């Protein structure tokens, strides 16, 4: 959306519908403790969409139960290795792993 203020090439960065810019921001970066990648996590939902669809078409109650299970197992994963082991990149453990310090239990 462009403003008619004569400034050519400038885009309006106001969020649509008056939403705060914090809601429009990207997810924070996370540190993967398995592959040591720092990246924006991806959302992963366990289960199969095709199975969910078949259960909804054939049987109402199992479809509802399966859908609820899939929604409750949704989580953030590393885009590189698919691990759920994500922590803040600013945490002390992330700093130790980045610097190659041997951390007990990992």
- Structure class: alpha+beta
Low-confidence stretches: 1-7
Q: What's the overall geometry?
A: elongated
Rg from Cα: 21 Å
Number of H- or I-type helical stretches: 4
- DSSP strand count: 5
The biggest beta sheet is recorded as: 3 strands, antiparallel
Helix content: 25-40%
Kindly report the spatial arrangement of strands forming the biggest sheet: 2-1-5
- Give the overall pLDDT as a whole number: 78
Question: Which key features would you list for this structure?
Answer:
disordered N terminus, 106 residues, 5 strands, 3-stranded antiparallel beta sheet, 4 helices, two-stranded antiparallel sheet, alpha+beta
Question: Can you put this structure into words, describing what you see?
Answer:
- This protein has about 110 residues and is an alpha+beta fold.
- The chain has a domain at about 25-100.
- It contains four helices and five strands, in the order H-E-E-E-H-H-E-E-H.
- It has a three-stranded antiparallel β-sheet with strand order 2-1-5, with no helix packed on it. The protein has a two-stranded antiparallel ribbon with strand order 3-4.
- A hairpin with a 5-residue loop joins strand 1 and strand 2.
- The longest helix is centred in the middle third of the chain and has 13 residues, at about 60-70.
- The protein is elongated, with a radius of gyration of 21 Å.
- Residues about 1-5 have low confidence and may be disordered.
């Amino acid at each position: 959306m462009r403003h008619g203020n004569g400034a050519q090439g400038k885009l309006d960065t106001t969020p649509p519908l008056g939403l705060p810019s914090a809601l429009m921001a990207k997810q924070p970066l996370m540190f993967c403790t398995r592959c040591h990648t720092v990246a924006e996590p991806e959302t992963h939902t366990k289960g199969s969409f095709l199975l969910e669809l078949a259960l909804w078409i054939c049987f109402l109650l199992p479809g509802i139960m399966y859908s609820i299970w899939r929604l409750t197992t949704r989580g953030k994963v590393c885009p590189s290795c698919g691990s759920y082991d994500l922590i803040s990149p600013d945490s002390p453990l992330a700093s130790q792993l980045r610097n190659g310090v041997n951390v007990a239990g990992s």
